[in-house]
Design a protein that fits this description.
The chain is α/β, with parallel strands linked by helices. The protein is built from 13 helices and 18 strands.
Length: about 425
């Protein structure tokens, strides 16, 4: 029975980031009546994401060349102190995505397959009414829109606009760990860009970014990404991110001194909040969580996109099955969606919680010479390895291959 809501659909997806946009395009391709909404009026705005991915991700998720900002084949780790280490491959190892272009492409794919996309809508609340769920959305002018759907998906990121934060009782011993980041998009002289081209460069150590790390990634010729990210430590006074950015730009690019010809094209930032063990509820009635809303962001390397796409790849076929005419009974649908959380845990792998614990110990402890020394020992053990080995460690979390001797230093056991 149809309600008196303003819009009706089978699935409402709140949030047109990588997880929500990818879920919407997958559902639309299967003929599902899907409505994708986002609080932004322009999906190219607020494009905070370092967006570095291993190259196999492009094929795995069917991403086109048009969303790629650049390709890279080398790792460069600067620090602790003045140390610089490089690992290079003859073949491309990965890409740096244009995050705004990715969001626009996913939304465009949703429309192309018959889905609907509505922008400039902020999710306020939702309530279930029998076998439907009604979601209240607010337009920029303050007016309200009600959407009735069979299922609603909260893909609003760390804001968790509909699901809300996990109750403290469920998070006991697994609190939400917060990381804050800031990134500038810079237009630089071509010779400056060439010095950073085809490599991912990270700055490590407390004299660079206490309790975090900095980065420089290449985009199209003449454009660089400069960023910082750190875990939030309520028990310690932390320097402002803006000051760290200025210091990073001055030391690496000459910003503020001889940085003539460098133009800041965009400034953006964001917050990641993620549990380590990911035991929060992924479903509440006909409301489902997706991507960062269920802690798919990995804090060790600040990765979000790849794991957000994994969550949509897991959820999409389950939703299609639940909407099938042969599974219209609520009990059958509930059994189908009950598999979502365990399947996602399996897809992310057992190394997930280990990498999260390493992130918390490594970054929160990185605030002085003692931990800098431990980090330097870890990096020394990686010298002589191939660039592909470093990718397996940092993207595949393959600690057991060559990191067992290094892990005690990361965890602070030695």
């Amino acid at each position: 029975m149809r309600s008196d809501a303003d819009l009706h659909c089978q699935v409402l997806v709140v949030g047109a980031g990588p997880s929500g946009g990818d879920l919407a395009r997958r559902l639309a391709r299967e003929g599902v009546d899907v409505l994708l909404v986002d609080r932004l009026a322009d999906l190219g705005r607020s494009a905070f994401s370092s967006a570095a991915l291993p190259i196999e991700t492009m094929d795995a998720f069917g991403l086109p060349a048009e969303v790629v900002g650049s390709r890279w084949r080398e790792w460069q780790l600067i620090g602790p102190g003045s140390a610089t280490r490089r690992w290079a491959s003859r073949q491309p190892l990965g890409v740096v995505l244009d995050f705004g272009a990715l969001r626009r492409w996913l939304a465009g794919q949703c429309r192309q397959w018959g889905g609907r996309v509505e922008l400039g809508l902020q999710a306020c609340s939702s309530h279930q009414d029998g076998e439907r769920i009604t979601t209240l959305l607010r337009r920029a002018d303050g007016s309200l829109l009600r959407v009735s759907s069979a299922w609603a998906v909260d893909a609003s990121g760390q804001a968790r606009s509909l699901l809300g934060d996990p109750p403290p009782a469920l998070r006991r011993g697994d609190e939400l760990v917060r990381a804050a980041g800031l990134e500038w998009l810079l237009r630089v002289p071509l010779e400056c860009w060439q010095a950073w081209a085809e490599r991912l460069s990270f700055c490590l150590g407390s004299d660079w970014v206490p309790q975090g790390y900095g980065w420089i990634f290449p985009m199209e010729p003449g454009v660089l990404k400069l960023g910082v990210c750190r875990l939030v430590d309520p028990g310690r006074r932390q320097p402002p991110l803006g000051g760290l950015m200025n210091d990073l730009g001055r030391r690496l690019l000459g910003l503020g001194s001889d940085g003539t010809g460098i133009e800041v094209l965009d400034r953006h930032g964001g917050l990641v909040r993620s549990t380590i063990r990911r035991r929060e509820a992924h479903q509440r009635g006909r409301l489902l969580g997706l991507g960062d809303a269920v802690s798919t962001a990995n804090l060790l390397g600040g990765e979000g996109i790849r794991h957000a796409l994994t969550s949509s790849a897991v959820l999409a076929p389950l939703l299609v099955r639940a909407l099938d005419e042969d599974l219209r009974s609520p009990a059958a649908q509930e059994r189908t969606l009950k598999a979502y959380a365990p399947l996602l845990r399996r897809a992310l792998g057992w190394r997930w919680s280990l990498s999260g614990r390493l992130a918390r110990h490594t970054w929160l402890g990185l605030h002085g010479p003692s931990m800098d020394g431990r980090l330097d020992l870890v990096l020394r053990q990686l010298e002589g390895r191939r660039a592909e080995d470093l990718s397996a460690l940092l993207f595949g979390y393959r600690f057991e291959r060559y990191g067992l001797r290094a892990m005690p230093y990361l965890l602070g056991w030695r």
